[in-house]
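Q: Predict the bound structure with NAP.
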Amino acid sequence: MNKNSSNTMALAPNTSNKRETVCIFGTGDFGRALGHKMIQSGYPVVYGSRSTQISNLIPKDAEVLGHAEAAQKAAIIIIAIQRQHYNFLIPLAEVLRGKVLVDISNNLKLNQYPESNAEHLAQLLPGSKVVKAFNTVSAWALQSGTLDASRQVFVCGDDVEAKQMVMNIVRALGLTPLDKGSLLAAQEIENYPLQLFPMWKFPIFLSLGLTAFFFLYCVALDIIYTYIYENNDFSFFIAITIPNRVCPVMALILLALVYLPGIFAAIIQLYRGTKYRRFPDWLDKWMLCRKQLGLIALAFASLHVVFTLVTPMRAFASWRTGKGIISQASFVLNNKTEPLDHTNAWLSDSYLALGILGFFLFVLLGITSLPSVSNNVNWREFRFVQSKLGYLALILCTAHTLVYGGKWFLSPSAYKWYLPNIYMLSLIVPCAVLVVKFVLILPCVDKPLTQIRQGWERNPKYSK
Ligand code: NAP
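A: Predicted complex:
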């Protein structure tokens, strides 16, 4: 073959690029949106509908036929119909034999039926190859093109070839297929769109409960106590002072709660002498929402920073500064000088420095938990930041709170109604986490724990 002829071949239209016709049953919202997207991607689309009348809503260039007639024109049929109407497909079993049926349906409730809709469809039409796909993509997102949040399409099915054909369509539409395995995975995939921030539920409820508790605790000690025993009305503390006490407390406790399940896991593994037994459910769930706990902690820490930065703008702060100036002036008038309390100066500067460094690391942890960042670091780097730097952040924030307390821990006036101040309460969990972690990294404990994590078992019967 000469050079020229090979060039002519390369320039000739590649007929194999022609897309295969796809049939869509149902001209509802999703059927129309998907059909529109498919036509844009070069697929000839034929609709199977109860009414063959063409309406304005149906994408032009698409054909509308009766179900049986439309099914004969394609190897892949997308069933854009609610599950409760699937029985109408039974009389079409012969036409649909050997065809790939794509189940895109969703339910109204989690685990609404004993079997998934896709499995139900496969039971109704055993001669067809059922594939589950597209159910997590919304018609609106398909139509408007705003697919950023839902670019992933979960695909599952028992026939590998059929699944591959559907995954090719997904790719051609500019979406990303994610193979979830056999049709057994369909139930899980059908539950995805019904979940409302599943990993955030526990952290949010916990944070709301703790915030309410600490807020009321502060109201009792800082407002009600002062009103009863000192006859001072500090009710305005509700706006900034109390939130600025609650936020750092919440940030510190939640940060400690990010590391506490890891401590429990290590203790359980040491006790069992194996890593091959499942953790209790509560611990598994807790481990899974550590990122969310950490992000809420970061939000509280950021609020604490903002509340602290606005302090000079507050009338209460100006009034207190004024009082300080008057007291200094009275010293000067009496020919006395008030020397600088170096201990206090050290305490306040160290407390601020520890807070700034702790917050810096806190932000770093938050940034590395973003998927775009975590995808670009390897597992070791991620662990270094989240574990080593995370513990350092916890140490700095705990030290920040300890130094803030300063000499007040032993002062009786810090215990109104014999109750400790909330910053003292906030130290319980972080100090416990740090003390136990310190014990866990002692060589005599760390060595067996590392061995267990590498697969060693004290008593191999546990692995059965
Ligand atoms: P829809 O607007 O109600 O459309 C459903 C279509 O099913 C109708 O337009 C009709 O098409 C057909 N149909 C209705 N009753 C029927 C019956 N008794 N027998 C045969 N066909 C019947 O619903 P949709 O929003 O498009 O949703 C369709 C499927 O996609 C559902 O299973 C849904 O869970 C799933 N889904 C929807 C979305 C979404 O954003 N809407 C997202 C993901 C998944 P004809 O009039 O042409 O026959």
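A: Residues 241-272 form the longest helix (32 residues).
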